[in-house]
Structures are given as C-alpha cells and as structure tokens.
C-alpha cells in the first residue's frame, strides 16, 4: 500500500503539487491525469524517491515499489534477459552460471574439466533453488506478451531499439514482484496486441497501480480511481470510479457550475446597480447600499472560477529552403547488431515534398533506419546520399539529441543563432515559458521534452524531416498542433508512427515496408498495419 499525505513537489521555482494526499491500496488502479507539463512525471519521481528512502513522513509504503519512468534505460553490453532477471536479483547468478559453462568447454585437461563441472553443478543448483529457471521462463513469457522479438532478449541492450529497450524495462517492472507499481506511459511503443496483453496483466495484478497514460480508455474497465492534477492551482482532485465515470461526472459538474455562476453573476449585476444608484442618496438608502455592497463582495468571493481550456500549443514549420528533386537517396542499406541482420538491402529515394511512411512490426528496424538516414548510425552495407541543398532534421523518439544538463534555452541556442527574445517566443508557443525555459532538460516531463525537440526542429529550417514517433507523450491538443503544422509543411517527411489517426491525417504518398524494404503507394488498407506497428 502507498499512502501520500500533504506532499508538496517543486522543480526549480515551479510549484507543481501543493499538499497532495491520496492512497493506492492493493487492488487499486489509479489514473493520474493532467495536461503536458502539469507535473505528473515529477510527482511519480518524487513519490518513488521518497518511498524508496522510507524517511519522508509524506510518503509511506507497505511492501515494495517498482517504477517505470518514461525514459528507456541506458544502452549497455548486458542482454535484455539479464536486465529482466535483475528485477529479482538473479542476473549476476545467471552470468556466473554462463561463465562456468564456458569454462567446461575451455578446460585444458580432465582435472580442470572436473573442477569446472563441479562448480557449474553447484551454481546450477543454487540458481534453481533461487527460482532462476522459473524466473527465466516467466521473463520470456512476459517479453513475448509485450511484443519483444524472440531473439531480442539474448541481444545486448545496445543492439535494441529505443522502443525495444522501453518494453524490456516495462517487462522488468512487471517481473519485479513489487506490491505497488508506478507506471509512466506504459503503453508507449506497444502495438495493439501488446496493449491488450498489458491490460489483462494489470487487471489480474493483486497490488496497487498508479499510472500516467494517454491510453486510459484502454484500461478504463479496471481503473478504480482518478487523480486530476490542475497546473493552475497545483492541486489534486481525487475521484473514485472509472475514467469514463469521471468524465461524465465532470461534465455534469461543469454544467451545474456554469448554471450557478450565471445565476450568481445576474444577482451580482442587479445588486451592484442598486449600490451605484443609492450610494450617494439619503442616509437611509446609502446605509442600505453599503450593506448591499458588502453582500456583493461576499457573492463575488464565492463565485466559482470559470473553467478554461488553457493555452494551446502553436507549431508552425517555416518554409523550407529549396532542394534538388531527390534530397535523399538510400542505397542497399543493411544493419545488424552482432546477430542476424535487422534489415538488409533496403533502397529507396525520397522526392522533394514527398511524405513517406515507414511501417513494420516491432523490431523491424524502423528506428535503426531513421538513425542511419540522419547520419547518427552507420550501416553495415550501403550508403545514404544527400541531394543538392538537402537539410535534414531528425526527431528521435528517445530524445537522445537533448543534453540532460542543458536548459531549454541552451538547447535552442545549440541549433539557432537568434536573439533570446525570439527563442523565448518559440518556447512560449510550445508552452515552455517562464521557469521551464531555464530548467535542466532532465527535469522536464516526456511531453515537455517532445515539445522541446519539436521546437529545435522548427528553428532548424530543414527541408527533410525524419520523425520517429513524434506524438508519443503528447496530449490531444499538442498532437493536433503537430498534425496541423505538418499539413502545411512544404518539405519532405519520413515518418515512423503507430498513431493511426495521426497517420491517417498525415496522408502519406508512399509506404516503405520494413524489414524487406518494399515500396508501395499509400492506401488506407495499410491503416490496419499501423495499428499493429
């Protein structure tokens, strides 16, 4: 059980949460909602840190807690399977077991071989008693449910895409045997089948769950409560019930408040007119006017603040500089990561102003391809040729182009030599103004990092955009802003996205099917494959 009492969260000079109190009990599935930048990620991080320290009276925990942050884990030489087993402290034991197995094969004589076999047998017995083989079997089952390729767990994390590493981290949290799970956007990078599998897993989980997700409708059946974080007041509203029930109750309350406000405003106007009329009248009427004025002030104090939708993200890509007819040409590209090739012999050209959608199942090499096109990664075979005047802009789904220590302003200065007033204006369009402009990037939420990465693209004046899941972590308003900006963009775009409505509005010209590299003219028949992406 997780209990939070009077918790206040500040980042820099920003007050994100003021004296919040809530409980996540066994069997609870609580959705934490609020606009991008409201502080949802910061709240989860603060709760995790204070619960882990077990020294903060504002956060108390019974049992163990596991946290899924938005960011993927760093790339290492460790395998995906070792990462999963580390959730139960079995990764080191398995590594020792594998090393003992290799020593048997490398033994120089019979005595050395006997010693190696004896050591291996002892390690194997301890691994089995600790539940290692059961854990390994369960790890592979969970990984398969989340769409991690069969051989993905045996590859180094450095050979996995950002989306695959993210799914490994999610699987690790689910395997952790923790009694309380804090999940920040757990459905990111999951295809439709994996989302359904995850929904089933969470429905059967006996502990408590606090999650941030733009896919709350998917999990609606099992949501038992909603926490609504209001960035204007830094307060948290608690609602017992499903996400759908909360929306219905909010709508009823909003209509009731609007009706009450209308009546109260009418009475305030009527009484204020009386006050102004008789304020300077005879003594009796002036006294009545004074009493009425005090009544009006009390009525104004009780006036419910009018609910507003808030500012909207404003995104507009500037007209790109001119380029040749074919700004980009991929020739016979192949890529592997120490094992079977992820893709091989992929070739295509990109025409000026063309919209190319890259499709393929998880692990098909979509992110690897974009990294090669952007010049960040090198193919094993083949080459990327840039045409006359080509200026590439790359949006990475894991935001690896952002320096965690740099502020938002410093991040913009890296890509544009422009006055600070102009840079602040661009950040303001992306709702990253005020103190957020001077926060280290590592303290921003996933949605805020996405907006910052998009702001860098806007300043770059590119005629070719390489976009890898640009709508991940964005709320509905921000997704609509990006969609609208791309609608009027005149340059070429290569897009990877699993967001079906976004892809439909994007209106691709052609489709590149990975890992085969087959090209086809866009048809809405491909929308079913987008959903499986």
Please provide a brief summary of the model:
With about 525 residues, this protein is an alpha/beta fold. Among the domains are: about 50 residues; about 200 residues, P-loop containing nucleotide triphosphate hydrolases (Rossmann fold, 3-Layer(aba) Sandwich).
Walk me through what this model shows:
The protein is an alpha/beta fold and about 525 residues long. Among the domains are: about 250-300; about 330-530, Rossmann fold. Helices cover about 40% and strands about 20% of the residues. The chain is built from 17 helices and 18 strands. The chain has helices at about 40-55, 80-85, 90-105, 110-130, 130-145, 160-175, 190-205, 215-220, 245-280, 285-300, 365-375, 410-415, 420-430, 445-460, 475-490, 500-505, 525-530, and strands at about 1-10, 15-25, 30-35, 60, 65-70, 180-185, 210, 225-230, 235-240, 330-335, 345-350, 355-360, 380-385, 390-395, 465-470, 490-495, 510-515, 520. The strands form four sheets. A six-stranded mixed sheet has the order 5-6-7-3-8-9, with helices on both faces. A six-stranded mixed sheet has the order 14-15-16-12-17-18, with helices on both faces. Helix 15 links the parallel strand 15 and strand 16 (about 490-495). The longest helix is centred in the middle third of the chain and has 36 residues, at about 245-280. It starts with a strand and ends with a helix. The model has no long low-confidence stretch (mean pLDDT about 85).
């Amino acid at each position: 059980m997780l209990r939070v009492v009077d918790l206040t969260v500040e980042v820099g000079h920003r007050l994100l949460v003021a004296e919040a109190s809530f409980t996540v009990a066994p069997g609870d599935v609580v959705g934490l909602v609020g606009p991008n930048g409201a502080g949802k990620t910061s709240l989860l991080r603060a709760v995790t840190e204070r619960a882990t320290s077990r020294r903060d009276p504002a956060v108390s925990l019974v049992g163990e807690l596991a946290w899924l942050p938005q960011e993927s884990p760093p790339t290492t030489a460790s395998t995906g399977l070792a990462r999963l087993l580390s959730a139960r402290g079995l990764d080191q034991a398995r590594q020792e077991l594998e090393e003992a197995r290799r020593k048997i094969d490398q033994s120089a004589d019979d005595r050395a071989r006997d010693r190696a076999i004896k050591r291996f047998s002892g390690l194997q017995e301890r691994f089995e008693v600790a539940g290692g083989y059961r854990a390994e079997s369960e790890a592979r089952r969970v990984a398969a449910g989340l769409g991690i390729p069969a051989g993905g767990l045996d590859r180094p994390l450095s050979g996995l895409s950002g989306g695959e590493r993210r799914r490994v981290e999610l699987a690790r949290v689910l395997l952790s045997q923790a009694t309380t799970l804090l999940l920040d956007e757990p459905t990111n990078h999951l295809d439709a089948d994996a989302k359904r599998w995850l929904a089933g897993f969470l429905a059967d989980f006996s502990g408590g769950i606090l999650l941030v997700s733009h896919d709350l409708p998917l999990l609606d059946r099992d949501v038992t409560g909603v926490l609504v974080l209001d960035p204007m007041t830094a307060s948290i509203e608690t609602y017992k019930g499903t996400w759908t029930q909360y929306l219905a109750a909010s709508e009823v309350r909003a209509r009731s408040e609007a009706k009450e406000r209308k009546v109260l405003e009418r009475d305030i106007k009527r009484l204020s007119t009386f006050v102004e009329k008789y304020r300077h009248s005879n003594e009796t009427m002036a006294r009545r006017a004074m009493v009425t004025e005090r009544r009006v002030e009390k009525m104004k104090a009780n006036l419910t603040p009018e609910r507003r939708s808030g500012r909207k993200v404003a995104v507009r890509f500037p007209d790109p500089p001119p380029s040749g007819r074919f700004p980009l040409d991929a020739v016979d590209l192949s890529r592997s990561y120490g094992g079977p090739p992820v893709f091989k012999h992929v070739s295509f050209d990109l025409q000026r102003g063309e919209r190319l959608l890259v499709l393929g199942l998880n692990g098909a090499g979509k992110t690897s391809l974009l990294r090669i096109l952007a010049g960040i990664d090198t193919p094993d075979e083949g080459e990327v040729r840039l045409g006359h005047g080509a200026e590439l802009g790359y949006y990475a789904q894991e935001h690896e182009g952002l320096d965690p220590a740099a502020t938002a302003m410093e991040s913009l200065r890296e890509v544009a030599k422009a006055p600070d007033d102009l840079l602040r204006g661009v950040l303001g369009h992306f709702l990253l103004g005020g103190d957020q402009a001077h926060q280290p990037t590592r303290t921003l939420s996933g949605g805020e990092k996405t907006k910052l990465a998009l702001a860098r693209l806007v300043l770059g004046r590119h005629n070719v955009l390489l976009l890898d899941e640009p709508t991940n972590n964005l709320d509905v308003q921000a997704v609509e802003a990006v969609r609208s900006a791309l609608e009027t963009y005149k340059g070429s775009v290569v897009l990877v996205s699993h967001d079906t409505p976004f892809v439909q509005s994007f209106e691709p010209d052609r489709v590149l099917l990975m890992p085969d590299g087959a090209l086809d003219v866009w048809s809405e028949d491909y929308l079913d494959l987008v959903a499986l992406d």
